[in-house]
Design goal:
By secondary structure, this protein is an alpha+beta fold.
Length: 177
């Protein structure tokens, strides 16, 4: 079985998945590994990147052609812990060798959670979680000023300057989490 899921490893990624009403299992890579290992003899994690694994996606990766192709994506075998140390677009797990039915847990109740992972009703956002993630729900800059700043950067420095600014903002957000 192949499972490809968002790698929810920090508050920023939790927020980005939380605002998608259809993401009901907000699980970390550790949680996915824990649950899959209960049902399969072998679970192999893989890291997924653009051009290289371990580096944030950059606008420059799109290149002159203006789009990505399947050749731009890289997938390499790794570890669950590497998903926390190296940037990966997708947490991928390949599970082999189903365990005997008699040795797997029942589907009810919900699985044990090994960290801050959780399952929710579609679209529900816990008020306490919204409060904890307030800086993402209520950014300090008004949307117009963000777009105006992006337009100014694009005009003055081109796509490279805009890409560097976006990358720096993401790096700061990841560091602050």
């Amino acid at each position: 079985m192949l499972v490809a899921v968002p790698p929810i490893i920090d508050d920023r990624l939790l927020y980005l998945n939380l605002i998608n009403a259809y993401h009901v299992n907000l699980w970390s890579p550790r949680q996915w590994s824990f649950v899959l290992n209960q049902f399969f003899e072998e679970v192999s994690p893989y890291l997924h990147g653009v051009e290289r694994v371990g580096e944030d996606f950059q606008p420059e990766h799109i290149g002159a052609q203006g789009s990505l192709t399947e050749k731009d994506f890289v997938i390499e075998r790794g570890t669950v812990e590497a998903m926390y140390d190296r940037f990966t677009l997708t947490a991928i797990f390949v599970a082999r060798g189903p365990r005997p039915r008699s040795s797997v847990p029942s589907a009810v109740p919900l699985p044990e959670f090994v960290d801050g992972s959780f399952t929710r009703e579609p679209g529900y956002i816990d008020p306490e979680l919204r409060k904890r993630l307030r800086r993402y729900f209520e950014p300090s800059e008004a949307p117009q000023s963000v777009f105006a700043r992006a337009a100014n950067l694009l005009r003055s420095g081109g796509i490279g300057a805009l890409g560097r600014e976006i990358a720096a903002a993401f790096a700061k957000t990841r560091h602050d989490s």
